[in-house]
Amino acid sequence: MNFLQIGYKGKNESWMYVVMFFIVFLGSTLGQIPITIKAFIASGKDMQKFAESGQNSFADLGIDSNLYLFLILLSFIIPLLLFIPLVKSIHKKKIRWIVTSRKKIDWSRFFFGVLVWGGVTFLLLGSDILLSPEKYVWNFKPIPFFYALLRSYCFYAFTNKFRGTII
């Protein structure tokens, strides 16, 4: 059975997709509330400053970068955590059916894709560093680096899974 044929397994009535869309959209909206509240508090509860800082995603309010990243990613984590049980309960589908048509997830293909995109990123960034080194400053601090690396493994997995599953 190919990937498109697996899409017909489970329940596929139109109203189910509409309900899921609204629930996941509501989850995304709920995920944005914490960053909005934090930004409003960080702006000193000044609506003018809050509105102006919203133009550049509240980055100029001095919110701790780790907290800021976590709060931004909540708008992806919450919908993903809603999406998975909804697919199982409303559509009666397995999550594996949404990801692949194979009997199990092919992790070698997954890691090959990671390797390819990592290589492309490395080549593009490396070439930019070689062509215009004045744009870069060496600022390596091991403890913050490894904390950021751990954070990226934890949080970005949710974001990519949500985008890959929904979109």
Structure characterization notes:
There is one protein chain. With 167 residues, this protein is mostly helical. The chain has one domain (3-105, 137-166). It contains seven helices and no strands.
Short note summarizing the structure:
It contains 7 helices and no strands.
Q: What oligomeric state do these chains adopt?
A: single chain
Shape field? flat
Order of helices and strands: HHHHHHH
Let me know the largest β-sheet: none
Distance between the termini: 22 Å
Structural class: mainly alpha
Which residues sit in consecutive blocks of at least 5 with pLDDT less than 50? Answer: none
What's the domain count? 1
Attribute tags:
single chain, 167 residues, mainly alpha, 7 helices, flat
List the helices and strands and how they pair.
Elements: H1 3-6, H2 14-42, H3 47-54, H4 65-89, H5 95-99, H6 107-131, H7 142-166
Helix pairs in contact: 2-4, 4-7
